[in-house]
């Protein structure tokens, strides 16, 4: 794995807003993430009564799937989730998108901060649809496998 893959992964994750988060006891659901490169983690805001929040109370294994056509990123990210009580971190992450889900906004008693500590990510970085179409056409002419972009596993 090249260091450029890890850097490019973080750059593209920053510009991607949504993925599907699942744990060993909670089904996959769409969630917005907040990336923390220095801590190798992703943050999520959810409601306390969700299966995700309940699962995070036990430090469950988690998988986060990200696909972004605009950012040309496809990733399966593995780690563990934990429920966190950190008012300063919640203030830092709070925004209009999170506020839309809670009747009393940031002060709602149902707000739960979840941290996903990353273990590894399998990542595919592509050049986008035009690049992909070019590679398919080239492969059909040259009879060689198309170059679909960079692929690798990042360990955190």
Automatic annotation (TrEMBL):
<dbReference type="Pfam" id="PF16242">
    <property type="entry name" value="Pyrid_ox_like"/>
</dbReference>
<dbReference type="InterPro" id="IPR038725">
    <property type="entry name" value="YdaG_split_barrel_FMN-bd"/>
</dbReference>
<dbReference type="InterPro" id="IPR012349">
    <property type="entry name" value="Split_barrel_FMN-bd"/>
</dbReference>
<protein>
    <recommendedName>
        <fullName>General stress protein FMN-binding split barrel domain-containing protein</fullName>
    </recommendedName>
</protein>
<dbReference type="InterPro" id="IPR052917">
    <property type="entry name" value="Stress-Dev_Protein"/>
</dbReference>
<feature type="domain" description="General stress protein FMN-binding split barrel">
    <location>
        <begin position="7"/>
        <end position="147"/>
    </location>
</feature>
